[in-house]
Amino acid sequence: MSDSCVIEVNSETAGIVVRDARGYAFFAASHLFQALEGQIFRNAREAERAARRLVTGQILQVAS
Fold this sequence. Notes:
By secondary structure, the chain is of the alpha+beta class. The chain has one domain. It is built from 1 helix and 4 strands, in the order ββββα.
């Protein structure tokens, strides 16, 4: 797997993940995905699933 990957949900860019020593760090592309900012995932697929759960309301958004 590459060191970085774009995460998309429903044809919208959610953010990117970048591999570091701990896993894949998420960087949000818009305020909709801000709740995932800085979270570490085992892989890009896990980050994508989290972004999809956020959109469907299965993860509560953090108020800014």
